[in-house]
Design a protein that fits this description.
2 strands
């Protein structure tokens, strides 16, 4: 395994969670004529065009928000130290 920082690992995991954000399926029609659409696999809210909100309390959205905020803060600190981010 290549040496990576904790921030690199968090970024890679966050990328996977975001890429998989709308990987669920829900049937938006009847059971005999199913019509499947993409949705969040956690809260089952369908993907829409434009900004899409999750159900309040969605764990996937909470993970995305918290990890993104953490990485933003870490990057700001690294920039203040003169590091490349």
């Amino acid at each position: 395994m290549v040496d990576t920082s904790a921030n690199d690992l968090i970024e890679a995991l966050l990328r996977r969670v975001v890429d998989d954000e709308w990987s669920g399926r829900y049937n938006r029609a009847c059971h005999c004529h199913p019509e499947y659409a993409r949705c969040c696999p956690e809260c089952r809210i369908p993907e829409k065009e434009g900004p899409t909100e999750h159900e309040p309390g969605c764990e996937r959205k909470a993970i995305i928000d918290k990890a993104s905020a953490y990485l933003r803060a870490e990057n700001e600190l690294a920039e203040k130290r003169g590091e490349d981010v």
